[in-house]
UniProtKB/TrEMBL annotation:
Residues 7-16 have a biased composition (Polar residues). The lineage of its organism: Bacteria, Bacillati, Bacillota, Negativicutes, Veillonellales. It comes from Megasphaera micronuciformis F0359. This is Uncharacterized protein. Residues 1-51 are annotated as: Disordered. Residues 24-35 have a biased composition (Basic and acidic residues).
Length: 51
């Protein structure tokens, strides 16, 4: 069986969770594991609207 298309994850991070993840990445009090999870959450958000 040949797979022509990679599996897609249609789930996306909600806006409130993305906001919290952004704050975690900016805050120096969190460790690398927390920042890794926050980065993964932000990578799964929709692109924002350009101003």
């Amino acid at each position: 069986m040949e797979v022509n298309e990679m599996a897609r994850n249609s789930k996306q991070t909600s806006r409130p969770v993305a906001s919290k993840a952004s704050k975690i990445l900016k805050d120096g009090r969190y460790g690398k594991d927390s920042k890794s999870v926050a980065g993964s959450a932000l990578a799964q958000t929709r692109p924002g609207k350009k101003k």
